[in-house]
Specification:
By secondary structure, the chain is of the alpha/beta class. Strands 2-1-5-4-3-6-7 form a 7-stranded mixed beta sheet. Strand 1 and strand 2 form a beta hairpin. The longest helix has 18 residues.
Length: 184
């Protein structure tokens, strides 16, 4: 293998590894935030601290409302909301989309079942290292499970929307049974 090819392979693998990692890891304290959210088309205030006082929170970041993958993921979270509630957990989505877009997305794709926050200035995305590195105008697809004490008990990063719901539910179930998280 020549040196140039080796450098390209190394840089490519380093980039992929970096994209797959979330800066906030299990055991770290989740950054507190407040935001305007849309729930069933209505705007309200959301406080992570207030929500954690009621139970664990699944905080998920998505790149763009109404894109195919984000719509699939929102549908899956909406369909599983009763499972989350049975575990005492709530769900909130976050993207950079403006509040008017989130109002429509909360009705059509989230089925009016959980709130989605507008993070136009990307302050929440940055605090959770959820900015998509190769498209910094968008959120990466990252899901966090946060315990009521504010500690992150699980995180999953993948642009594929298909495992975020099943993985976060498994993490919550394991945590509810044992107080610890076992990898899904």
């Amino acid at each position: 293998m020549n040196a140039r090819f080796g450098t390209v392979v190394f840089c490519g693998l380093s980039l992929l590894w970096g994209l797959a990692q979330a800066a906030l890891d299990i055991g770290e304290t989740a950054p507190e935030f407040t935001a305007k959210v849309a729930l069933a088309g209505n705007v309200q205030s959301y406080s992570l601290r207030d929500e954690l006082s009621r139970g664990p929170v699944v905080l998920y970041f998505f790149p763009s409302a109404f894109s195919v993958g984000c719509s699939i993921e929102a549908h899956e979270f909406a369909e599983a909301l009763d499972d989350y509630k049975a575990l005492g957990a709530s769900v909130v989505g976050v993207s950079r989309d403006d509040l008017e877009t989130q109002k429509k997305f909360s009705v059509q794709e989230c089925r009016g079942k959980f709130p989605v926050a507008s993070d136009a200035d990307q302050s929440i995305m940055k605090a959770y290292d959820a900015v998509l590195h190769f498209r910094p105008d968008y959120a990466n697809r990252v899901s966090y499970v946060i315990a009521p004490n504010g500690k992150i008990i699980y995180q999953y990063t993948s642009l594929n929307p298909m495992k975020h719901v099943s993985n976060t539910l498994t993490a919550l179930r394991n945590w509810a049974k044992t107080g610890m998280v076992q990898a899904p």
